Amino acid sequence: MSVHQTIHGRVLVISIDRPEKRNAINAEVTAGIDAALNELEDNPALWVGVLTGTPTMFSAGTDISSRDAGRTERGGEYGLIRRNRRKPLIAAVEGNALGGGFEVALACDLIVASTTARFGLPEVQRGVIATSGALFRTMRALPINVARQMLIAGLILDAERGYELGLVAEVTPPEHACAAAVAMAERICLASPFSIQQTLIAINSQLAQEDETGWEATQVAIDAILQSEDMKEGHSAFFEKRTPQWKGR
């Protein structure tokens, strides 16, 4: 199993466990995340979720060797990205959250990160773009100039800088992010679950129109990239372990 579920009272901890692949997400991981989040949403005994990786790695994003990480009916990409959620979900980040891994964290309600955490969007360096929400959620979570640096200049944020900018809710020592996220989840559980769910529904309904515009813009960019020579070159260079020779088209 590449995704594990553990229950702590009313908190469901979901762990991606593919350390040999840097927790990269393939169809199996997507299905595991989807199943766990379905359980969180459908089980009235569960009030809050925590999504994490292994002690030294959150996720390197899509497993490129699998070519397609798959989608699910309720969650969309990675079983999470387009999910209509009512219950809070906290990302507990250790190590790298890159590409799709960062997009997974952005799709959560809160981020707890240890001092080892690093957030980045390296897609353009491979001739592609971020396709799972980062083109609009990064701008929502960070100042626009920082979002641009991440999306087009390869800027990597550490946990402390992410905290200063409001991306990260809490910074912990190494290997303590999950425990801190569970503690945060338990504090949330002291409040009315119905009130929390209605609050999240209200927040998300206000963001829905922005999301629709964001997805439309993302699809336009995806359609252009799929026809580009640079995407083909970036893919070839990655697997051949060489520097890309960009065509600019």
Automatic annotation (TrEMBL):
What Pfam families would the database entry show?
Answer: ECH_1 (PF00378)
What PROSITE patterns does the database record attribute to this sequence? ENOYL_COA_HYDRATASE
Query: What SUPFAM superfamilies has UniProt attached to this entry?
Result: ClpP/crotonase (SSF52096)
Q: Which GO molecular function annotations are given, in alphabetical order?
A: lyase activity
Mention one GO biological process in which this protein takes part, according to its record.
fatty acid beta-oxidation
The record's Gene3D superfamilies line, in alphabetical order, gives: 2-enoyl-CoA Hydratase, Chain A, domain 1 (3.90.226.10), Lyase 2-enoyl-coa Hydratase, Chain A, domain 2 (1.10.12.10)
> Which keywords, in A-to-Z order, does the entry hold?
Lipid metabolism, Lyase
Listed InterPro entries: ClpP/crotonase-like_dom_sf (IPR029045), Enoyl-CoA_hyd/isom_CS (IPR018376), Enoyl-CoA_hydra/iso (IPR001753), Enoyl-CoA_hydra_C (IPR014748)
Transcription as a keyword of this entry, yes or no, is no
The text of the family note is: Belongs to the enoyl-CoA hydratase/isomerase family.
What is this protein called in UniProt?
Answer: Unannotated protein
Q: Which organism is it from?
A: freshwater metagenome
